[in-house]
Protein backbone atom coordinates (compact mmCIF):
# COMPACT_ATOMS: atom_id res chain seq x y z
CA UNK A 1 0.00 0.00 0.00
CA UNK A 2 2.81 2.39 0.93
CA UNK A 3 4.58 1.58 -2.32
CA UNK A 4 1.37 2.32 -4.16
CA UNK A 5 1.02 5.68 -2.39
CA UNK A 6 4.65 6.55 -3.18
CA UNK A 7 4.11 5.67 -6.84
CA UNK A 8 0.98 7.85 -7.01
CA UNK A 9 2.79 10.80 -5.43
CA UNK A 10 5.77 10.39 -7.79
CA UNK A 11 3.53 10.21 -10.87
CA UNK A 12 1.50 13.23 -9.72
CA UNK A 13 4.67 15.22 -9.04
CA UNK A 14 6.11 14.25 -12.45
CA UNK A 15 2.86 15.29 -14.15
CA UNK A 16 2.86 18.60 -12.26
CA UNK A 17 6.47 19.27 -13.20
CA UNK A 18 5.79 18.40 -16.83
CA UNK A 19 2.77 20.68 -16.89
CA UNK A 20 4.81 23.55 -15.49
CA UNK A 21 8.00 23.16 -17.51
CA UNK A 22 6.81 21.52 -20.73
CA UNK A 23 3.07 22.21 -21.14
CA UNK A 24 3.09 20.96 -24.75
CA UNK A 25 4.46 17.54 -23.71
CA UNK A 26 2.06 17.40 -20.77
CA UNK A 27 -0.83 18.10 -23.09
CA UNK A 28 0.15 15.37 -25.56
CA UNK A 29 0.88 12.77 -22.89
CA UNK A 30 -1.76 13.28 -20.21
CA UNK A 31 -3.71 16.52 -20.62
CA UNK A 32 -5.54 15.62 -23.80
CA UNK A 33 -7.16 12.50 -22.28
CA UNK A 34 -8.25 14.28 -19.10
CA UNK A 35 -9.61 17.26 -21.04
CA UNK A 36 -11.58 15.05 -23.48
CA UNK A 37 -13.19 13.13 -20.61
CA UNK A 38 -13.91 16.37 -18.74
CA UNK A 39 -15.58 17.99 -21.76
CA UNK A 40 -17.68 14.89 -22.49
CA UNK A 41 -18.81 14.49 -18.87
CA UNK A 42 -19.53 18.15 -18.16
CA UNK A 43 -20.87 19.06 -21.60
CA UNK A 44 -24.64 19.06 -20.92
CA UNK A 45 -24.44 20.81 -17.54
CA UNK A 46 -21.94 23.43 -18.75
CA UNK A 47 -24.07 24.26 -21.78
CA UNK A 48 -27.08 24.56 -19.53
CA UNK A 49 -25.24 26.81 -17.08
CA UNK A 50 -23.96 29.00 -19.94
CA UNK A 51 -27.45 29.42 -21.37
CA UNK A 52 -26.65 27.48 -24.53
CA UNK A 53 -29.63 25.13 -24.31
CA UNK A 54 -33.10 25.37 -25.86
CA UNK A 55 -36.37 23.95 -24.48
CA UNK A 56 -37.38 20.57 -25.98
CA UNK A 57 -39.47 20.60 -29.15
CA UNK A 58 -43.22 20.51 -28.73
CA UNK A 59 -43.54 17.11 -30.39
CA UNK A 60 -41.15 15.65 -27.82
CA UNK A 61 -43.23 17.06 -24.98
CA UNK A 62 -46.43 15.70 -26.55
CA UNK A 63 -44.86 12.27 -27.09
CA UNK A 64 -43.60 12.18 -23.51
CA UNK A 65 -47.02 13.19 -22.19
CA UNK A 66 -48.81 10.55 -24.31
CA UNK A 67 -46.40 7.82 -23.29
CA UNK A 68 -46.55 8.94 -19.67
CA UNK A 69 -42.75 9.34 -19.63
CA UNK A 70 -40.67 11.95 -17.86
CA UNK A 71 -40.71 15.40 -19.53
CA UNK A 72 -37.46 15.80 -21.54
CA UNK A 73 -35.06 18.51 -20.33
CA UNK A 74 -33.51 21.43 -22.27
CA UNK A 75 -31.24 20.43 -25.14
CA UNK A 76 -27.67 21.65 -25.77
CA UNK A 77 -26.21 21.94 -29.29
CA UNK A 78 -25.49 18.54 -30.81
CA UNK A 79 -21.81 17.49 -30.85
CA UNK A 80 -20.84 16.67 -34.42
CA UNK A 81 -17.21 16.00 -33.65
CA UNK A 82 -14.74 16.29 -30.81
CA UNK A 83 -11.19 15.96 -32.04
CA UNK A 84 -7.96 16.35 -30.09
CA UNK A 85 -5.18 18.43 -31.67
CA UNK A 86 -1.52 19.10 -30.89
CA UNK A 87 -2.47 22.01 -28.67
CA UNK A 88 -6.08 21.48 -27.60
CA UNK A 89 -9.49 20.22 -28.64
CA UNK A 90 -11.77 21.10 -31.52
CA UNK A 91 -15.46 20.79 -30.89
CA UNK A 92 -17.86 21.02 -33.80
CA UNK A 93 -21.43 21.83 -32.78
CA UNK A 94 -24.75 21.77 -34.64
CA UNK A 95 -26.84 24.57 -33.25
CA UNK A 96 -30.46 24.02 -32.23
CA UNK A 97 -33.25 26.05 -33.83
CA UNK A 98 -33.28 29.54 -32.35
CA UNK A 99 -29.53 29.60 -31.52
CA UNK A 100 -26.89 31.48 -33.43
CA UNK A 101 -23.11 31.64 -33.62
CA UNK A 102 -23.01 34.84 -31.54
CA UNK A 103 -24.54 32.95 -28.60
CA UNK A 104 -21.54 30.64 -28.57
CA UNK A 105 -19.03 33.45 -29.23
CA UNK A 106 -20.44 35.40 -26.28
CA UNK A 107 -19.89 32.49 -23.87
CA UNK A 108 -16.35 31.48 -24.86
CA UNK A 109 -14.87 32.95 -21.69
CA UNK A 110 -17.36 31.06 -19.51
CA UNK A 111 -16.71 27.84 -21.46
CA UNK A 112 -12.99 28.31 -20.93
CA UNK A 113 -13.08 28.01 -17.17
CA UNK A 114 -16.07 25.65 -17.05
CA UNK A 115 -14.09 23.09 -19.07
CA UNK A 116 -10.84 23.93 -17.28
CA UNK A 117 -9.00 24.83 -20.49
CA UNK A 118 -6.70 27.72 -21.29
CA UNK A 119 -8.42 29.46 -24.20
CA UNK A 120 -11.63 29.07 -26.20
CA UNK A 121 -12.51 30.70 -29.52
CA UNK A 122 -15.41 30.00 -31.83
CA UNK A 123 -16.29 30.60 -35.46
CA UNK A 124 -19.15 29.71 -37.71
CA UNK A 125 -18.18 27.11 -40.30
CA UNK A 126 -21.47 27.14 -42.19
CA UNK A 127 -25.04 28.00 -41.34
CA UNK A 128 -25.88 26.36 -38.00
CA UNK A 129 -22.46 24.72 -37.51
CA UNK A 130 -19.96 26.29 -35.12
CA UNK A 131 -16.41 25.23 -34.45
CA UNK A 132 -15.18 25.78 -30.90
CA UNK A 133 -11.37 25.63 -30.70
CA UNK A 134 -9.97 25.11 -27.23
CA UNK A 135 -6.34 25.23 -26.18
CA UNK A 136 -5.03 23.23 -23.25
CA UNK A 137 -2.21 25.64 -22.36
CA UNK A 138 -0.78 29.02 -23.38
CA UNK A 139 0.50 28.15 -26.84
CA UNK A 140 1.99 31.62 -27.36
CA UNK A 141 4.24 31.47 -24.31
CA UNK A 142 6.82 29.30 -26.03
CA UNK A 143 5.94 29.11 -29.70
CA UNK A 144 6.51 25.76 -31.37
CA UNK A 145 5.41 25.47 -34.95
CA UNK A 146 3.94 22.10 -36.00
CA UNK A 147 6.18 19.82 -38.03
CA UNK A 148 3.70 19.45 -40.87
CA UNK A 149 2.94 22.76 -42.56
CA UNK A 150 1.22 23.83 -45.73
CA UNK A 151 3.95 24.62 -48.28
CA UNK A 152 1.99 26.08 -51.17
CA UNK A 153 3.95 28.68 -53.14
CA UNK A 154 3.94 32.15 -51.64
CA UNK A 155 2.16 30.98 -48.48
CA UNK A 156 4.48 31.33 -45.54
CA UNK A 157 3.77 29.87 -42.09
CA UNK A 158 5.02 32.78 -40.05
CA UNK A 159 3.45 32.55 -36.58
CA UNK A 160 1.14 30.62 -34.28
CA UNK A 161 -2.34 31.86 -33.42
CA UNK A 162 -3.70 31.76 -29.90
CA UNK A 163 -6.13 28.99 -30.88
CA UNK A 164 -3.17 26.79 -31.81
CA UNK A 165 -3.59 27.08 -35.58
CA UNK A 166 -0.84 28.33 -37.87
CA UNK A 167 -0.90 31.90 -39.13
CA UNK A 168 0.12 32.05 -42.79
CA UNK A 169 1.27 35.11 -44.66
CA UNK A 170 -0.35 34.32 -47.99
CA UNK A 171 1.00 36.71 -50.58
CA UNK A 172 -1.39 35.66 -53.31
CA UNK A 173 -4.47 36.23 -51.13
CA UNK A 174 -3.18 39.34 -49.34
CA UNK A 175 -0.45 40.87 -51.51
CA UNK A 176 0.79 43.73 -49.35
CA UNK A 177 1.29 43.88 -45.61
CA UNK A 178 2.02 46.46 -42.92
CA UNK A 179 3.63 45.56 -39.59
CA UNK A 180 3.62 48.16 -36.84
CA UNK A 181 4.92 48.14 -33.30
CA UNK A 182 6.83 50.16 -30.75
CA UNK A 183 10.58 49.77 -30.54
CA UNK A 184 11.67 46.32 -29.21
CA UNK A 185 8.23 44.86 -29.82
CA UNK A 186 9.33 42.14 -32.25
CA UNK A 187 8.83 43.56 -35.76
CA UNK A 188 12.24 42.61 -37.03
CA UNK A 189 11.99 39.09 -35.61
CA UNK A 190 8.65 38.72 -37.40
CA UNK A 191 10.26 39.95 -40.62
CA UNK A 192 13.21 37.60 -40.09
CA UNK A 193 10.73 34.72 -39.82
CA UNK A 194 9.22 35.81 -43.10
CA UNK A 195 12.61 35.89 -44.82
CA UNK A 196 13.45 32.44 -43.41
CA UNK A 197 10.06 31.16 -44.60
CA UNK A 198 10.44 32.69 -48.06
CA UNK A 199 14.05 31.52 -48.51
CA UNK A 200 13.17 28.01 -49.82
CA UNK A 201 10.58 29.39 -52.26
CA UNK A 202 11.15 30.48 -55.83
CA UNK A 203 11.02 34.18 -55.09
CA UNK A 204 13.31 37.18 -55.34
CA UNK A 205 13.80 39.03 -52.07
CA UNK A 206 14.43 42.75 -52.10
CA UNK A 207 15.29 44.52 -48.86
CA UNK A 208 15.34 48.13 -47.77
CA UNK A 209 16.76 48.51 -44.29
CA UNK A 210 17.44 52.09 -43.31
CA UNK A 211 18.96 51.01 -39.99
CA UNK A 212 22.17 50.94 -42.07
CA UNK A 213 21.31 47.38 -43.02
CA UNK A 214 21.87 45.78 -39.62
CA UNK A 215 18.78 43.59 -39.86
CA UNK A 216 18.79 42.51 -43.51
CA UNK A 217 22.40 42.71 -44.70
CA UNK A 218 23.47 39.60 -42.74
CA UNK A 219 20.88 37.72 -44.81
CA UNK A 220 22.34 39.12 -48.04
CA UNK A 221 23.07 35.79 -49.71
CA UNK A 222 19.40 35.16 -50.27
CA UNK A 223 18.61 38.73 -51.37
CA UNK A 224 18.53 39.77 -55.00
CA UNK A 225 18.76 43.47 -54.11
CA UNK A 226 19.41 45.42 -50.93
CA UNK A 227 19.47 49.09 -49.97
CA UNK A 228 20.69 50.46 -46.65
CA UNK A 229 19.97 54.16 -47.03
CA UNK A 230 17.21 56.31 -48.54
CA UNK A 231 19.30 57.36 -51.60
CA UNK A 232 19.88 53.77 -52.73
CA UNK A 233 16.31 52.90 -51.70
CA UNK A 234 14.99 55.50 -54.14
CA UNK A 235 17.05 54.09 -57.03
CA UNK A 236 16.02 50.56 -56.07
CA UNK A 237 12.31 51.41 -55.91
CA UNK A 238 12.44 53.18 -59.26
CA UNK A 239 14.21 50.14 -60.75
CA UNK A 240 11.41 48.01 -59.34
CA UNK A 241 8.82 50.21 -61.02
CA UNK A 242 10.72 49.69 -64.30
CA UNK A 243 10.74 45.94 -63.65
CA UNK A 244 6.99 46.08 -63.04
CA UNK A 245 6.44 47.85 -66.36
CA UNK A 246 8.54 45.21 -68.15
CA UNK A 247 6.43 42.45 -66.58
CA UNK A 248 3.24 44.13 -67.79
CA UNK A 249 4.72 44.35 -71.29
CA UNK A 250 5.38 40.62 -71.11
CA UNK A 251 1.81 39.90 -70.03
CA UNK A 252 0.48 42.08 -72.86
CA UNK A 253 2.64 40.23 -75.36
CA UNK A 254 1.37 36.90 -74.06
CA UNK A 255 -2.24 38.15 -74.13
CA UNK A 256 -1.98 38.93 -77.79
CA UNK A 257 -0.97 35.33 -78.44
CA UNK A 258 -3.80 33.90 -76.30
CA UNK A 259 -6.48 36.14 -77.80
CA UNK A 260 -5.50 34.86 -81.25
CA UNK A 261 -5.43 31.23 -80.08
CA UNK A 262 -9.00 30.02 -79.44
CA UNK A 263 -9.71 28.46 -76.01
CA UNK A 264 -6.42 29.58 -74.50
CA UNK A 265 -6.58 31.12 -71.06
CA UNK A 266 -5.89 34.84 -71.24
CA UNK A 267 -3.23 35.97 -68.80
CA UNK A 268 -4.06 38.90 -66.53
CA UNK A 269 -1.26 38.43 -64.02
CA UNK A 270 2.06 36.63 -63.70
CA UNK A 271 0.46 33.48 -62.31
CA UNK A 272 -1.52 32.99 -65.54
CA UNK A 273 1.66 33.00 -67.62
CA UNK A 274 3.22 29.69 -68.67
CA UNK A 275 5.84 28.63 -66.15
CA UNK A 276 8.76 28.86 -68.57
CA UNK A 277 8.26 32.58 -69.21
CA UNK A 278 6.81 33.58 -65.84
CA UNK A 279 8.93 36.27 -64.16
CA UNK A 280 10.00 35.43 -60.63
CA UNK A 281 7.73 37.01 -57.98
CA UNK A 282 9.39 39.70 -55.89
CA UNK A 283 8.82 40.36 -52.18
CA UNK A 284 10.00 43.81 -51.11
CA UNK A 285 10.75 44.01 -47.38
CA UNK A 286 11.05 47.48 -45.92
CA UNK A 287 12.21 47.82 -42.30
CA UNK A 288 11.89 51.17 -40.48
CA UNK A 289 9.76 52.71 -43.21
CA UNK A 290 9.55 56.11 -41.47
CA UNK A 291 13.20 56.69 -42.39
CA UNK A 292 12.13 56.83 -46.04
CA UNK A 293 9.50 59.46 -45.31
CA UNK A 294 11.47 61.84 -43.09
CA UNK A 295 13.42 64.78 -44.51
CA UNK A 296 15.36 67.77 -43.24
CA UNK A 297 16.31 69.63 -46.42
CA UNK A 298 14.60 70.57 -49.68
CA UNK A 299 16.58 67.93 -51.60
CA UNK A 300 15.60 65.26 -49.10
CA UNK A 301 11.98 66.32 -49.45
CA UNK A 302 12.15 65.76 -53.20
CA UNK A 303 13.73 62.35 -52.62
CA UNK A 304 11.03 61.48 -50.09
CA UNK A 305 8.26 62.40 -52.53
CA UNK A 306 9.79 60.22 -55.23
CA UNK A 307 10.20 57.30 -52.80
CA UNK A 308 6.60 57.48 -51.60
CA UNK A 309 5.33 57.83 -55.19
CA UNK A 310 7.27 54.72 -56.22
CA UNK A 311 5.95 52.79 -53.19
CA UNK A 312 2.36 53.86 -53.92
CA UNK A 313 2.73 52.78 -57.54
CA UNK A 314 4.13 49.42 -56.51
CA UNK A 315 1.32 48.95 -53.98
CA UNK A 316 -1.37 49.89 -56.47
CA UNK A 317 -0.10 48.04 -59.52
CA UNK A 318 2.45 45.53 -58.26
CA UNK A 319 0.21 42.59 -57.36
CA UNK A 320 -0.51 41.41 -60.90
CA UNK A 321 3.18 41.77 -61.77
CA UNK A 322 4.06 39.53 -58.81
CA UNK A 323 5.50 42.33 -56.66
CA UNK A 324 4.49 42.19 -53.00
CA UNK A 325 5.26 44.74 -50.32
CA UNK A 326 5.98 43.97 -46.69
CA UNK A 327 6.40 47.18 -44.77
CA UNK A 328 7.54 47.47 -41.14
CA UNK A 329 7.64 50.55 -39.00
CA UNK A 330 6.93 52.04 -35.59
CA UNK A 331 4.22 54.35 -36.82
CA UNK A 332 2.74 54.82 -40.23
CA UNK A 333 0.27 57.68 -40.20
CA UNK A 334 -0.51 60.96 -41.86
CA UNK A 335 2.14 62.77 -39.78
CA UNK A 336 4.68 61.22 -42.13
CA UNK A 337 3.26 63.42 -44.87
CA UNK A 338 1.55 63.32 -48.19
CA UNK A 339 0.80 59.94 -49.76
CA UNK A 340 1.23 57.85 -46.58
CA UNK A 341 -2.47 57.20 -45.96
CA UNK A 342 -2.91 56.41 -49.66
CA UNK A 343 -0.11 53.87 -49.39
CA UNK A 344 -1.52 52.46 -46.14
CA UNK A 345 -4.91 51.90 -47.77
CA UNK A 346 -3.26 49.45 -50.18
CA UNK A 347 -1.58 47.42 -47.45
CA UNK A 348 -4.29 44.88 -46.73
CA UNK A 349 -2.54 42.54 -44.29
CA UNK A 350 -2.12 44.34 -40.99
CA UNK A 351 -0.07 43.21 -38.02
CA UNK A 352 0.41 45.28 -34.89
CA UNK A 353 2.92 44.36 -32.21
CA UNK A 354 2.83 46.13 -28.87
CA UNK A 355 2.10 49.81 -29.34
CA UNK A 356 2.33 52.55 -26.75
CA UNK A 357 -0.79 54.47 -27.65
CA UNK A 358 -4.13 54.05 -29.29
CA UNK A 359 -3.27 56.30 -32.23
CA UNK A 360 -0.49 53.93 -33.32
CA UNK A 361 -2.87 50.97 -33.09
CA UNK A 362 -5.42 52.96 -35.04
CA UNK A 363 -2.89 53.27 -37.87
CA UNK A 364 -3.05 49.50 -38.25
CA UNK A 365 -6.66 48.68 -37.42
CA UNK A 366 -8.65 51.91 -37.04
CA UNK A 367 -10.01 51.57 -40.56
CA UNK A 368 -10.61 47.79 -40.59
CA UNK A 369 -11.18 46.22 -37.15
CA UNK A 370 -11.76 48.73 -34.33
CA UNK A 371 -11.87 46.05 -31.58
CA UNK A 372 -8.39 44.91 -32.61
CA UNK A 373 -7.11 48.37 -31.63
CA UNK A 374 -7.87 47.68 -27.99
CA UNK A 375 -6.28 44.23 -28.20
CA UNK A 376 -3.08 45.75 -29.66
CA UNK A 377 -2.82 48.35 -26.89
CA UNK A 378 -3.27 45.65 -24.24
CA UNK A 379 -0.28 43.53 -25.34
CA UNK A 380 2.05 43.36 -22.32
CA UNK A 381 5.54 44.74 -22.78
CA UNK A 382 7.23 41.57 -21.49
CA UNK A 383 5.77 39.24 -24.13
CA UNK A 384 7.73 40.54 -27.08
CA UNK A 385 6.70 39.19 -30.42
CA UNK A 386 3.04 38.95 -29.46
CA UNK A 387 0.96 40.71 -32.11
CA UNK A 388 -2.52 41.21 -33.44
CA UNK A 389 -2.96 40.20 -37.06
CA UNK A 390 -5.99 41.34 -38.95
CA UNK A 391 -7.15 41.46 -42.52
CA UNK A 392 -9.67 43.33 -44.59
CA UNK A 393 -12.47 40.92 -43.63
CA UNK A 394 -12.53 42.56 -40.18
CA UNK A 395 -11.34 39.39 -38.43
CA UNK A 396 -8.25 39.43 -36.26
CA UNK A 397 -6.14 36.99 -34.24
CA UNK A 398 -3.56 37.15 -31.49
CA UNK A 399 -0.35 35.69 -32.94
CA UNK A 400 3.26 35.19 -32.01
CA UNK A 401 6.13 34.30 -34.30
CA UNK A 402 8.68 31.73 -33.08
CA UNK A 403 11.84 33.34 -31.83
CA UNK A 404 14.49 33.01 -34.51
CA UNK A 405 17.94 34.41 -33.91
CA UNK A 406 19.79 36.28 -36.61
CA UNK A 407 22.29 33.40 -36.73
CA UNK A 408 19.55 30.86 -37.46
CA UNK A 409 18.05 33.11 -40.14
CA UNK A 410 21.48 33.62 -41.72
CA UNK A 411 22.06 29.85 -41.78
CA UNK A 412 18.73 29.30 -43.54
CA UNK A 413 19.47 32.06 -46.06
CA UNK A 414 22.95 30.68 -46.73
CA UNK A 415 21.54 27.19 -47.19
CA UNK A 416 19.16 28.48 -49.87
CA UNK A 417 21.56 31.02 -51.37
CA UNK A 418 21.63 29.05 -54.66
CA UNK A 419 17.94 29.88 -55.12
CA UNK A 420 18.59 33.63 -55.22
CA UNK A 421 17.30 34.63 -58.66
CA UNK A 422 18.82 37.37 -60.79
CA UNK A 423 16.32 40.07 -61.62
CA UNK A 424 17.97 41.95 -64.53
CA UNK A 425 16.40 45.30 -63.63
CA UNK A 426 17.80 45.01 -60.09
CA UNK A 427 21.26 43.68 -60.96
CA UNK A 428 22.94 46.90 -59.82
CA UNK A 429 21.60 46.43 -56.30
CA UNK A 430 22.75 42.86 -55.76
CA UNK A 431 24.63 42.89 -52.45
CA UNK A 432 28.34 42.16 -52.64
CA UNK A 433 29.17 39.11 -50.56
CA UNK A 434 32.69 39.68 -49.38
CA UNK A 435 34.35 39.63 -46.01
CA UNK A 436 34.27 43.04 -44.37
CA UNK A 437 36.81 44.19 -41.77
CA UNK A 438 35.65 43.50 -38.25
CA UNK A 439 34.54 46.36 -36.00
CA UNK A 440 37.74 45.95 -33.97
CA UNK A 441 39.94 46.32 -37.10
CA UNK A 442 38.04 49.42 -38.13
CA UNK A 443 38.38 51.00 -34.74
CA UNK A 444 42.09 50.28 -34.59
CA UNK A 445 42.54 51.90 -38.03
CA UNK A 446 40.69 55.05 -37.05
CA UNK A 447 42.16 55.30 -33.53
CA UNK A 448 44.96 57.89 -33.16
CA UNK A 449 48.42 56.34 -33.01
CA UNK A 450 49.88 56.29 -29.52
CA UNK A 451 53.59 56.77 -28.95
N1 LIG B 1 8.46 36.19 -31.27
C1 LIG B 1 9.33 36.44 -30.30
N2 LIG B 1 9.52 35.56 -29.31
C2 LIG B 1 10.40 35.81 -28.32
N3 LIG B 1 11.15 36.94 -28.24
C3 LIG B 1 11.00 37.85 -29.19
C4 LIG B 1 10.09 37.65 -30.28
N4 LIG B 1 10.15 38.73 -31.08
C5 LIG B 1 11.04 39.55 -30.53
N5 LIG B 1 11.56 39.04 -29.40
C6 LIG B 1 12.59 39.66 -28.55
O1 LIG B 1 12.46 41.06 -28.62
C7 LIG B 1 13.67 41.65 -29.03
C8 LIG B 1 13.37 42.82 -29.96
O2 LIG B 1 12.81 42.34 -31.14
P1 LIG B 1 12.95 43.13 -32.51
O3 LIG B 1 14.36 43.50 -32.79
O4 LIG B 1 12.25 42.32 -33.54
O5 LIG B 1 12.13 44.45 -32.18
P2 LIG B 1 11.75 45.61 -33.15
O6 LIG B 1 10.30 45.83 -33.00
O7 LIG B 1 12.26 45.35 -34.53
O8 LIG B 1 12.52 46.83 -32.51
P3 LIG B 1 13.09 48.11 -33.26
O9 LIG B 1 11.92 48.96 -33.63
O10 LIG B 1 13.95 48.77 -32.21
O11 LIG B 1 13.87 47.65 -34.44
C9 LIG B 1 14.45 40.53 -29.72
O12 LIG B 1 15.82 40.66 -29.53
C10 LIG B 1 13.96 39.29 -29.04
O13 LIG B 1 14.77 38.98 -27.95
MG1 LIG C 1 13.53 46.37 -35.83
UniProtKB/TrEMBL annotation:
PROSITE patterns: FTSK. Residues 163-362 form the FtsK domain. GO terms for molecular function: ATP binding; DNA binding. Signal peptide: none annotated. ATP binds at residues 181-188. Pfam families: FtsK_SpoIIIE. Keywords: ATP-binding, Nucleotide-binding. This is DNA segregation ATPase FtsK/SpoIIIE, S-DNA-T family. The lineage of its organism: Bacteria, Bacillati, Actinomycetota, Actinomycetes, Kitasatosporales.
